[in-house]
Amino acid sequence: MKGKIYSSCREAVADIPDHASIMIGGFGHAADKPQNLIAALRDQGAKDLTIIVNGAGVSGSLGIGSLGGKPFVDEEVLVLNGQIRKAVCSVPASLVMSKPGAFEKRFLAGEAELEYVPQGTLAERIRAGGAGVGAFYTPTGVGTLVEKGKEKRIIDGKEMLLEYALRADYALIRAYCADTAGNLVYRGIMRSFNAVMAAAAKVTIVEVEQIVQAGDIDPENVVTPGIFVDRIIECPKEVRR
Prior knowledge:
By secondary structure, the protein is of the alpha/beta class. 18% of the residues lie in helices and 26% in strands.
């Protein structure tokens, strides 16, 4: 049986097929995006993918969320490569109105699908997927376009919408450190979306800054237990665009 440590991001994403659903972690910052895995998936070329993300590539090319405003790799490279069929996300449009992103252009041209989800609801749908919860009710979105086609109930005197859990075939996430058993430690903003996505996919692939031996991480510092992690790659901070 192959261990969890992979020699390269290319090897780790090699078996991702066309039509797969993929969670991609990070809030939208260079420090918390699995940039090396995203670049490897671009080079691998799987098509007609559904991505579940916070933002559909709205920061990288503009350098928003990086020190010095330098461009970084995010989901936009997959969109530009024609690999994305649908995005489930909370930020589908560019953060700068005068510079629309690639996904925004494709959606408006009818070339890609969008399922818009409010940010907190997105995080909870992913968390529910990892926890085995099938669905939940939330007041978020009541009275807006978000409620279209959804079941509504009055709970504790408030209108609420039924939202279903999200799971994916694969999750590409970033953490600061892993041990050889797959236990993960995050640093700062890395914890955003990465941690909840780790438990909500059939195959979770993680790029980390360092890998240590099992037992070297204090159990009190483990955020994601190794049972949720399938593949680990130690990656440099610098990413080839």
